[in-house]
Amino acid sequence: MSDPIIWVGGGILVLAVIALVFVLAMKPAGGGADFASLEGRVAQLADSQMTAHAQLSERLQSQERALARAVEERLDVLGRRVGDSLQKNSELTHSNLADLKTRLAIIETAQKSISELSGQVVGLQELLANKQARGAFGEIQLMDLVRSALPPSAYLFQASLSGNRRVDCLISLPNPPGPIAVDAKFPLESYRALREARDEPALAAARREFTQAIRQHVRDIAQKYIIPGETAESALLFLPSEAVYAELHASFPSLVEEAFRAKVWIVSPTTLMATLTTVRAILKDVRMREQADLIQREVGFLMKDVERLDERAGKLQQHFEMAQKDMRELRISADKITRRGAQIAEVEVEENTVVSTLVLTPAN
């Protein structure tokens, strides 16, 4: 901005010198008071123009320095505001990303659990065929079937119940129906007598003994292992042989009906495996629902984190827009000041030109 002022001042000085030379050139040989007076006026005009030029230059330089300081201070304040805002939002963004990473890790763990549960295939071990009756035949088969069909957390062998009662196996199920008791103490002696009967009287006596033994065993199971509030409303009577199961249903249907009325379900190795498969499916469904609830809960937390991240990103965008607006306004103010300085310089040039013209006119 000082260069145009210097050029204008120099131009004014040149015009004054030219006017002085012109006056001296037009001075008569004999001299005169008018010409001396005119010469003095021209010199005085040149001095006044130089003084005005110096004052104007000093004032404009002072304004330029003040403007530069104001612009620098405004830029420093704006830079600090933008820096603080960026740092704060960066910290918030890193915190949110860490929370999101934690949530995603929990969801990934839950998904792995569901994949493992879905990928497990319920394998049926070899169903033992009809074997010779022996001491712990029923309990051994029951253990094998239960262990092959259910996870360890879903059953308990020789479980204790209230009243100092002990059941062969207790299958844990959620309420309803609740834990189901399974008894494997089949009356083996009466069945052996039934199989070993050779004549009709012996067969009839064996049938009566077998019927009485089964009926009493069903009553004992109903009384001992069906406990309101502690176990399910039904229990299982496990028969260790498909042949015994078939014989009971074919030759003793009244015993089966009595067991149904007492809510004691008679099962064979095959039907027990089907029952255990159903139980396993129920347990898996319960666990999958628990995992699904966990995933839904974590997804809800994740959505809230995403909403907060979007909100903070919007605030950061607003800060950027405000900074851009401040820069535009600052640029507009600087352009206005520049244009006004140029206008002032143009006005000074026009005024000096008019003065010079007025000075030179009397000389003509």
Major beta sheet, specifics? Answer: 5 strands, mixed
Shape descriptor? rod-shaped
Helix/strand structural class: alpha/beta
Task: Please report which band the strand proportion falls in: under 5%, 5-15%, 15-25%, 25-35%, 35-45% or over 45%.
Answer: 5-15%
Distance between the termini: 36 Å
The total of helices stands at 8
Q: Into which percent range does the helicity of residues fall?
A: over 70%
Low-confidence stretches: 120-135, 354-364
The side-by-side strand order for the widest beta sheet comes to: 1-2-3-4-5
Mean pLDDT: 75
**SSE succession:** HHHEEEHHEHHEH
Give an account of the 3D structure.
The chain is an alpha/beta fold. The chain has helices at residues 2-26, 33-119, 137-149, 188-196, 200-225, 242-251, 253-261, 269-363, and strands at 155-161, 165-171, 180-183, 235-238, 264-267. It has 2 domains: 2-101 and 307-363; 137-267, Trna Endonuclease, Chain: A, domain 1 (3-Layer(aba) Sandwich), CATH 3.40.1350. The chain has a 5-stranded mixed sheet with strand order 1-2-3-4-5, sandwiched between helices. The two termini are 36 Å apart. The relative contact order is 0.11.
